[in-house]
Amino acid sequence: MSKADRHPTLEDAYGLAEALRPALHRLYRQLRRESGDAGLSPLHGLLLAAIIRQPGIGVAELARMERLRGPTISGHVKAMERDGLIARSEPDPSDRRRNGLVATGKGQEIIRGLKQSRTDWLAFELARLSPRQRDAIRAAIEPLMEIGQ
Hints:
This protein has helices spanning about 5, 10-35, 40-55, 60-65, 70-80, 105-125, 130-145, and strands at about 85-90, 95-105. By secondary structure, it is mainly α.
């Protein structure tokens, strides 16, 4: 009995994964290129977006969420503060030692600009596809979101 006979669904999933992974990787790389002129490293962009999504997040929580070491995150947080992208919030009333992080107006504007340039690029590329191809992508959004959770 072959591997495909024993697990046809899993075998199909492996084939799909091998075809999808390089396509997603190329798309991700191109989207990153679209934000190259913002003067923001990919990691700082990632951290800034996380801080915008969760205003008041602590450094330790941010490190856990992004799976980075505390000292690594601390250095990046200090650089982002120095660049005026984030600020420390008022101390937490339940723990006066903890200051959360918030994005400044400058940081929020940079992320808005990044999202807009990426959306503009992607919309232009999607417009070049046929209606049938756009429908296929539209149908794939929900299952892809489910995988990413």
